[in-house]
Structures are given as C-alpha cells and as structure tokens.
Design brief:
Layout: E1 4-9, H1 13-26, E2 50-57, H2 67-70, E3 91-93, H3 118-125, E4 129-132, H4 139-152, E5 155-158, H5 168-176, E6 180-182, H6 192-205, E7 209-219, H7 222-226, H8 235-244, E8 252-260, E9 267-278, E10 282-293, H9 296-314, E11 319-320, H10 322-328, H11 338-349
Parallel strand pairs: 1-2, 1-4, 2-3, 4-5, 5-6, 6-11, 7-8
Antiparallel strand pairs: 7-9, 9-10
Helix pairs in contact: 1-9, 3-4, 6-8, 10-11
Bound molecules: nicotinamide-adenine-dinucleotide (NAD).
C-alpha cells in the first residue's frame, strides 16, 4: 500500500502531536491495542501509512531544522510522548504574511532566512495532501497556502477557522483543479463543541427549553494567545454557530476561546454553563468543567481526515468533499447534525 504523502503548514503543537502520533502508533500492530484512535484502520490505511514529506514554518527555532527535532522546539509545549527518528525532512521557511499577530509577536521569533519556493518544495517532495495548521488568525497566510496547493496539485485540509472549504468560491477553484478540499476548523476528538452540542440536544430532545448557555476555554498554548486578539478570533463565530445548530430554536449562546494561562502549558480547561426550564417552568442549570490536552485532541481526527482525503484523491473527488468536511470540521460547507455527519462519512468510506 503506498503511503499518504502529507505536507504540513505550521510546525506548532498540532503538528508535534500528529507526527509523534504516527511514531507512537507505528509499533502497535493489532487494532485493539490502538487505544485513543477512533479508526485504527481507515480506507485500508493505518497511521503508519501517513508520511510527512515537507513542512513549513517561520520561527527561527524551527526553520532549517530536521522536522523530528523542530516539533519539540519552543514555543511548542505539546507533551512529548516518544522520540521521533529523523526522516530527512527539513522545515522550510514560508512567507510570514499575517501568521504572527499582535498577541503572538513576543512569542514567535521570525526567522530572517529567505522564503522557500513553496510549490517547488511540495512538488519535489511528492506531497499529495497539504494540511494547514497555521494559527487561528492567519487568514491571508491560509489563503496564500490554499493557492499554493492549487498550483502544486495537492489536496487541501484546512484545520484552521479561516473560511476556505466553506467558501463556495474556493470550493469551485478546487473543483476546477480536480482536487479535493476539506475544512474548516478541525473538530476535536474530545471536543468542547461536540460535548456542548450533545448536551444541548439531549436536553432539548427531552423537552427542556434552553434559555442561555456559554462554553468558554482557558488554555496555555500559543493558539490561546492568538485568539486573545478578537480581530483574529473567527473561532468564536464558528463555535457559536455550530452550537446554535444543535437546537431547533434561538437561545442566547456564546462559545469560544477566551483566555491564556501560561502555566496550563498545552492543557485546556473548558467551562460550560447551561440554563433552561422544563416541566411547568421548573428551572435547571448545568455548571461543568472538563480538562483536556489540546494538541493530542487533534490527532485522531486529523489521521482520519488525511486518510479520507487520500481515498478522495484515489476516487477522483474534486471540490469540497462534504462528508469529510461534516465529519471532521466545525464549519463544513453545510452544517448537519452529528448523527447525519457520522452516517454520511460511513457512506463515503464504503
Ligand atoms: N486541538 C487542537 O489543537 C485544534 C483543534 C481544532 C483546530 N485547531 C487549529 O489548528 C491550528 C494549529 O493549532 P496549533 O495549536 O498547532 O497552533 P500553534 O500556534 O502551536 O502552531 C502554529 C504554527 O504556525 C507557525 N506559523 C505562523 N505563521 C506562519 C506562516 N506564515 N507560515 C508557516 N508557519 C507559520 C507558527 O510559528 C507555529 O509553529 C490552529 O488554527 C487551530 O485553531 C487546533
């Protein structure tokens, strides 16, 4: 079985977990031993069939470095779960554009190395799938890399909240180029958005009228610093819209990242508040906190999405691949319920 050749934009915390995950699960042969993976095998592919062949960043502590070392460079703070052997991939310098915002300029040390010819690097590496892991607020940079995917003939996975797969104009361009496109804003495996939607739906299905609800996060990764800058925080809109779609009436809803607490490192504390009424207007309230580690939360879903996109490439899908978007992302081109998303994804795989 040929490998899925992946290139990563942004060697931050998600990239670190993704690459460590490939190594971590490589040794586990039996699917039942692969604890933490939703799909040990998907479309006939295991995580070890994913090969990262190129990577781009702007931070001088990562640019020019062997990728297996760059993933552990500061300011990354995703947990180290295993050593990663060198695979001969050096991190290339991408153009900065809006990759660094006001809140993160003290954290990211921009390299003065010349920008690489991104299309040339992608073609030389034989990259098939370009995965966008830029900071949330990097809208122009995300769009620029989507252009490079078109020029290099790569499928594009947009894990960031920039509207690309959900923008019909981009979907048309990928369709014209006969390339698959999926996004936007990856769903977490143990996600606060999915949990929030599930709770609201459960309550609502049971006749509860939700009046107001919020879900707020506190995290210690660079990404939490980036979303402090409200002008760069599309995530709040995406999360709020996604949560609102889980109940069939209007309620006061706020969902989004809120604050940065450095000592949390890569951990994320998520707070949920739900207030509503049920039989004869009796009040109910839920006040809940749960804690996850941020970067590993992207790993399993990214593995699934990358393998599904390889299937889409094999089957010559073009433009936005709706079942993969709905399964793996908070803002697909068309918002559907979690149940419909699961069903459509299973149908796509079969
Ligand atoms: N569980 C999760 O971590 C999760 C879930 C859903 C979505 N996402 C999305 O994934 C993305 C990545 O998250 P992260 O935690 O890895 O972020 P991060 O801040 O740790 O990493 C971003 C990386 O991009 C690099 N960068 C900045 N500008 C660049 C440019 N112009 N070209 C190339 N590289 C550049 C930074 O130096 C950094 O290494 C974010 O958009 C986030 O919203 C993450």
């Amino acid at each position: 079985m040929p490998k899925v050749k992946v290139a990563l934009i942004g060697v931050g915390n998600c990239a670190s977990s993704f690459i460590q995950g490939i190594q971590y699960y490589e040794k586990l042969q039996k699917p039942e031993d692969c604890i933490g993976l939703r799909n040990p095998v998907l479309a006939g592919l295991s995580p070890k069939d994913i090969q990262v062949v190129a990577a781009f960043d702007v931070d001088e502590r990562k640019v020019g470095k062997e990728l297996s070392l760059a993933i552990f460079a500061q300011p990354n703070n995703a947990p180290k779960v295993c050593d990663v052997p060198a695979a001969g991939v050096k991190v290339s310098k991408g153009p900065l554009l809006d990759g660094v915002g006001n809140s993160t300029k003290a954290i990211i040390q921009v390299s003065n190395a010349p920008d690489a010819d991104v299309v040339k690097v992608l073609k030389a590496a034989g990259a098939e799938v370009l995965v966008n892991l830029l900071p949330s607020g990097a809208t122009k940079a995300s769009q620029w890399y989507a252009e490079q995917a078109l020029l290099a003939g790569c499928a594009f996975v947009n894990a960031t909240p920039t509207f690309i797969a959900s923008d019909p104009a981009w979907a048309k361009r990928f369709e014209a180029a006969k390339l698959p496109l999926v996004g936007d804003d990856l769903v977490d495996q143990v996600g606060s958005t999915a949990l929030h939607k599930t709770l609201l739906k459960l309550l609502s299905d049971n006749g509860v009228r939700i009046n107001e609800t919020y879900q707020l996060d506190v995290g210690g990764g660079t990404e939490s610093v980036d979303t402090l800058d409200r002008s760069r925080d599309a995530k709040r809109t995406i999360k709020t819209e996604s949560v609102a779609a889980s109940i069939p009436y209007k309620a006061d809803i706020v969902a989004g990242s809120t604050d940065y607490v450095d000592f949390l490192q890569n951990k994320r504390d998520s707070y949920f508040w739900i207030s509503g009424v049920y039989f004869c207007n009796a009040p109910m309230k839920i006040d809940l906190k749960f804690q996850t580690v941020d970067a590993p939360n992207a790993g399993s879903v990214l593995f699934d999405v990358v393998r599904a996109v390889k299937l889409a490439l094999n089957k010559k899908f073009k433009g936005a691949v709706e079942p993969v978007c709905a399964y793996g992302f908070k803002r697909p081109p068309q918002m559907v319920s979690l149940e419909v998303a699961e069903k459509e994804f299973a149908k796509f795989l079969s």
